[in-house]
Design brief:
Blueprint: H1 3-39, H2 42-48, H3 53-59, H4 63-78, H5 87-97, H6 101-114, H7 122-144, H8 154-174, H9 181-193
Length: about 200
Amino acid sequence: MSYGDVMTSRAPRATRSAARRAEILRAALEVIAERGYRGASLAAVAERVGLTQQGLLHHFPTKEALLVAVLAERDQWDAVPDTPWRLDLLDSLVEYNAMRPGIVQTFSALLGESVTEGHPARAFFTERYAAVRGNMARVLRAEYGERLPSGLTPERAAPLLVAVMDGLQYQWLLAPESVDMPGAFRDFLTLLGEG
């Protein structure tokens, strides 16, 4: 067997492995959305993708590793490569989230559970929120400069912007027929711009 043959045989294996990991992540999202993190088992995820639990552990050695991969994957879906966030992109993200309730439900359930001591996603969310607040401060600074019309600095307004986005998700999940998440977010953006 030549070096080229070895490289050719490795490529399909790596592609199959990546495809299997993606399938496992989708199944894990579904199971977590249905049962919450604590109620989701590796066995349930494995069964959903036609693997044994041991087979799943080949791809993700622990339940915590699977959880962190699910969260990281969800953030990748929201990323716009090489594009700095702008307020209009945030508006588009809220509209996009309104079209994928299962993903929003999973994220929200994990976020809620992560506030408990010792939860495996606590560090992920703590670090994520620090980064998101920094990103939102940059978005607000690009839009309004050093002071918003209200007089707040971008750093003071950034946690409020994040709170509105996440808070609207919870309200929308509980009463989608009563809460127009994209419309309410646009209303908040209007309030930000008023002096």
